[in-house]
Design brief:
- The chain is of the alpha+beta class and 89 residues long.
- The protein has one domain.
- It has two helices and five strands.
- It has a five-stranded antiparallel beta sheet, with helices on one face.
Length: 89
């Protein structure tokens, strides 16, 4: 299993900071499963976790995490790192 990636990009889009861990071009499907958001809710209430299925495999991993913008950019990145470590660590 690969190591947990570090954030590649943090940008504000609408009501969320999008913290990207992997390039969306790596995936054939990207979804926002309820189970992942539920798992992350203890770290950041109202967040969303986008998972993707890698091309040529059945492996699903975190692509990006959306953190509500009221949290602020620095804290959004920190919370997203905690979330991906909880899910993939």
């Amino acid at each position: 299993m690969e190591s947990v990636p570090k954030p590649k990009l943090v940008e504000l889009e609408g009501a969320y900071y999008h913290v990207r861990f992997r390039d969306p071009d790596e995936f054939v499907d990207i979804r926002t499963p309820i189970w992942a958001s539920n798992a992350a809710s203890s770290i950041s209430e109202g967040c969303r976790v986008r998972t993707g299925r890698r091309k040529g495999t059945d492996e699903w991993v975190v692509q990006s995490i959306l953190i509500p913008k009221h949290v602020g950019k620095a804290r959004a990145q920190s919370q997203a790192v905690s979330i991906i470590n909880k899910i993939e660590g």
